[in-house]
Structure formats: C-alpha cells, structure tokens
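Example record for the data management plan.
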Amino acid sequence: MNLFIDLLIVCPLLFLAGLIDGISGGGGIISLPAYLLTGMPLDMAYGCNKMQSLLGTSASLFKYTKSKLIDPKPALIACITAIIGSMVSTRIMLSLDEGVKKGIVAGAMCFIIILTLFTTFCKLSKREKTKLELTPKTVIISLACGLLLGLYDGFFGPGCGTVALMLFTVLFGYDMRVATGNGKVIIVVSNLIALVSYIARGSIIYAIAIPASICNILGSYIGAHLAVKNGKRLVRGVLYLVIAVLLGQAFFKLI
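Corresponding structural encoding:
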C-alpha cells in the first residue's frame, strides 16, 4: 500500500463520514468502504473503523451532551447490555473466516438499507419527547435496545447510529436529535469494548487510522453542531442522503 495515496483516499471520506455521523448517524456506511478501498484486509478495516468511530462519535457526543440533547438514564441502562453484546459479537467476528465475514457485511448492508427506508415511513420528525419516565417496562426495552445495538455494532458497525435513531424514536417517541444523542452514548461504549479486542489482535494500521480519526473527529463535531442548530429537518434530510448512498452501494455491487 502507498501510504500517501491511501490517506488521500481515506481522509476526505472519513471527514464526510464524520459529518453525516454527527448529524444523524450512519457515517460508517462511508468509512468502512473507504478503508477497504486501500486494499487492507477486512479485519484491519474493521479495526481502523472502530478506532475512528470511537473518537469521532465521542466528539459529536460531547456536542450533544453540551446541548442537553441526551436523556442519560435510559442511555446508560442500555449501555449495560451493549457491553455484553459488543464483547460477544466482536469475539465471534474475529474468529470467523474472511468469506463468512464478507457474507455478514453484505447481509448487514441489505438490512440497513431496508431499515433506513422503513424509518422514512414512520414520521420520525413528529416525535417530541426529550425525557423518558423510567418504569420496569421502559428499563427492559432499554436493555433490549442496548443488547441489539451492541450485537449489531460488534458484527457490523456501519449504520448503528441509524438503527439507534429508529429504535429510540419508534419505541420511545424521542425527538430525533435526542434519539441520535442517546444512540451515540451506546455506540461510544460499544466501540470502546470492540476496539480493545482489535488492538489486542494487532488489527489496526495506526499510520492510516490516526489521521483518518482526526478528520472524522472534525467532521463529527461540525455535523453535531449543524444538527443541534438546524434541528430535525436537517437530521431527516441527511437520513435521506444515507438512504441514497446505501442504495447506490447496493446498485454498484449488483453491477
């Protein structure tokens, strides 16, 4: 691999991925393919993507927290099972053959396309709730959401923010920005757990991952600022952009 050429490919795409991720989530659908464009093995691409996702999502999480667009109790409850899900799925993913991993990636891409299309028909922008009253039912649902997000993030990752957005808006009626903020709490925790495994395995190319992460952090913070400032309309618009990118990727693979 030519490091300079690889960085020219990855860094702009990772900035764009961060921008999208900071607004509505789903930036991983750009970042993971960006790493794969360099020709690195899938395990290395996953490891670099986890490092960048952790740092970039943390930057946007800081902005959402500062703007009070997070409902902390349900998010932290969900983190309990997200840790378990991420640990289990990451270990399974690292033990699988390359061909099986590619099959999981292809299947997950189809799933996130369908899920993202589904969110457009749920009238998510009409949800207004910013705080959730904790009851035994909402605690159980929060734990279930955390487990699902942790498993998904460990097995695949890209689109996890979109999955979180859908879960927190549809199941709890959250405002789209609060749903995005809650999702970022869980994704940061899940990515941290997964990243430890990839570091221990030596599956990160730091010469690419560190510059790419810096670009992603910048994009994530700017994206979060735009989402906080311009509200649900921008989040919804970027969600449509994510759908277009997903469909474009699927069409390209079919060709």
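Summary line stored alongside the record: The mean pLDDT is 84.
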